[in-house]
Specification:
By secondary structure, this protein is mostly helical. It is built from one helix and no strands.
């Protein structure tokens, strides 16, 4: 079975607080993936 990975190319036109929020939510969502 192939190993899953996530890649992105987001434009970071955010404030520092918005960028932190995005990364926090992304990290939480990725933690729910099966390995």
């Amino acid at each position: 079975m192939r190993r899953k990975f996530v890649a992105g190319n987001w434009k970071m036109n955010n404030t520092l607080a918005e960028a932190r929020q995005l990364l926090t939510e992304l990290t939480l969502a990725l933690g729910e993936l099966e390995s």
